[in-house]
């Protein structure tokens, strides 16, 4: 696939790194020549220096025969104009744009179609991060929750702790513990090493477990791996930007929410906008302010400012002063592995959320949803089986007959709105939504090929 990526910031760079290893023809456009030079030295891609929305730059980047244009510059307006140029001048088939401004998003139904601003798919990082954080609040104790198949199937990452009934037992005991609930453990991370789970594998305390199940059974399966935490009721948010205010707005209906915002004008605005959230103007790393607001009684402290270091420091302080859990927003991917799992319970990455959403539109075959896992090392994919036994390499075959890459596991299937856990004798049918876990994303092209029907299939 010939793909043009506009913007070599963190998202554009990470997307290019994800796609360049998958036999794609990638061209990266940016107005920073030094950044482009560095990336060209590291990766097999083409770099074009210029203004992303310029017809000349787009022509030089190969827009005349590109299959896909992804506009992820730091400017919403540049992204929109670039999509307009690609549509009007080059008839680019698929155009994706990152749009951050809430004013544009509120009017997206009127704005973003071929007669006005021709964008096929909109990616809004703030909305994606808000959704991720809300899911983590909804499922206390989870490290990551990803929904598939119209939210009927979920993939969940949790840590196993002493007190979980399955800890110290083989995976095969899960069915004995929960005879009426079907689920599947697809990965175990133990001491930074990935273990492919077998029925005889013993779950140990400290294991990072990835499991898949029908969404309504998430808490039941989690309760086998750790003592279920009580629902979070008292939340403190540091930072009243778009993400902070969005999370507060969602949570204030069912939780007691306090927010700390440095900017006095922004704090006053939020106090009016958020009817049930208590907004304070101050520094979230001010120890006396945290004491005054009873940090020791807070269930979750969520640091959501635009400064990674400030988020990390305020969260560490909040944890030391008694907050039960702390969650931080981290922009730099390199920081995530450094901070998560110690004093900081969960690190949330806008880049990872954005990449997951983008990959769902970029993958070949009928791949409709992608979740980036373990900070980009692993992936979960929702693919739809199309064709028949002659044109498809999966339809009509049992799961045990499908030749999967070594790191791949078919976890679950949605068929006619019914969730089916993937067992060896289950036969794939036309129209099935198949959820595949990939421990190593280098095998993505093989999965794409599996789910691409061909009239020439032999």
UniProtKB/TrEMBL annotation:
Keyword Ion transport: yes
SUPFAM superfamilies attached to this UniProt entry: NAD(P)-binding Rossmann-fold domains (SSF51735), TrkA C-terminal domain-like (SSF116726)
Keywords: Ion transport, NAD, Potassium, Potassium transport, Repeat, Transport
GO annotation, cellular component aspect: plasma membrane
Positions of the RCK C-terminal domain: 143-227, 368-453
Domain of life per record: Bacteria
Ranges for domain RCK N-terminal: 1-123, 232-348
Listed GO MF terms: potassium ion transmembrane transporter activity
UniProt-listed Pfam families: TrkA_C, TrkA_N
Protein name: Trk system potassium uptake protein TrkA
Source organism of the structure: Conservatibacter flavescens
């Amino acid at each position: 696939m010939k793909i043009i990526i506009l913007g070599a910031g963190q998202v554009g760079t990470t997307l290019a790194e994800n796609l360049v290893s998958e036999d794609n023809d990638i061209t990266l456009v940016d107005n920073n020549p030094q950044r482009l030079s560095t990336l060209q030295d590291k990766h097999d891609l083409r770099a074009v220096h210029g203004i992303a929305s310029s017809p000349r730059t787009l022509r030089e980047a190969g827009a005349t025969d590109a299959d896909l244009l992804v506009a992820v510059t730091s400017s919403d307006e540049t992204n929109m104009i670039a999509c307009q140029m690609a549509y009007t001048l080059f008839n680019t088939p698929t155009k994706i744009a990152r749009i951050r401004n809430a004013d544009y998003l509120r009017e997206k139904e009127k704005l973003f179609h071929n007669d006005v601003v021709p964008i096929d798919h909109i990616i809004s990082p703030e909305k994606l991060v808000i959704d991720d954080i809300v899911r983590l609040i909804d499922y206390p104790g989870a490290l990551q929750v990803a929904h598939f198949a119209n939210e009927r199937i979920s993939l969940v990452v949790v840590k196993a702790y002493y007190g979980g009934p399955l800890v110290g037992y083989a995976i095969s005991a899960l069915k004995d513990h929960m005879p009426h609930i079907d689920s599947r453990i697809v990965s175990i991370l133990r001491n930074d090493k990935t273990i492919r789970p077998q029925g005889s594998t013993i779950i140990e305390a400290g294991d990072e477990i990835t499991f898949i199940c029908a969404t309504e059974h998430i808490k039941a399966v989690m309760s086998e791996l750790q003592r279920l935490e009580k629902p979070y009721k008292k939340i403190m948010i540091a930072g009243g930007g778009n993400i902070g205010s969005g999370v507060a707005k969602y949570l204030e209906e069912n939780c007691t929410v306090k927010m700390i915002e440095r900017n006095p004008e922004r704090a006053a605005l939020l106090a009016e906008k958020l009817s049930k959230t208590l907004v304070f103007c101050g520094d979230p790393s001010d120890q006396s302010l945290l004491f005054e607001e009873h940090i020791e009684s807070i269930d979750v402290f969520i640091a959501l400012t635009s400064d990674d270091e400030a988020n990390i420091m305020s969260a560490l302080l909040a944890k030391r002063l008694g907050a039960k859990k702390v969650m931080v927003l981290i922009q730099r991917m390199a920081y995530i592995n450094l901070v998560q799992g110690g004093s900081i319970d969960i690190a949330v990455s806008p880049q990872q959320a954005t990449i997951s959403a983008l990959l769902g539109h970029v993958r070949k075959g009928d791949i409709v949803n992608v979740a980036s896992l373990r900070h980009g090392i692993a992936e979960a994919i929702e693919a739809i089986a199309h064709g028949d036994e002659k044109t498809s390499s999966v339809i009509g075959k049992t799961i045990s007959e499908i030749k999967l890459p070594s790191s791949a596991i078919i976890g679950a299937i949605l068929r006619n709105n019914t969730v089916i856990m993937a067992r060896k004798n289950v036969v794939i049918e036309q129209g099935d939504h198949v959820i595949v876990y990939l421990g190593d994303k280098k095998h993505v092209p093989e999965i794409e090929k599996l789910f691409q029907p061909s009239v020439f299939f032999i």
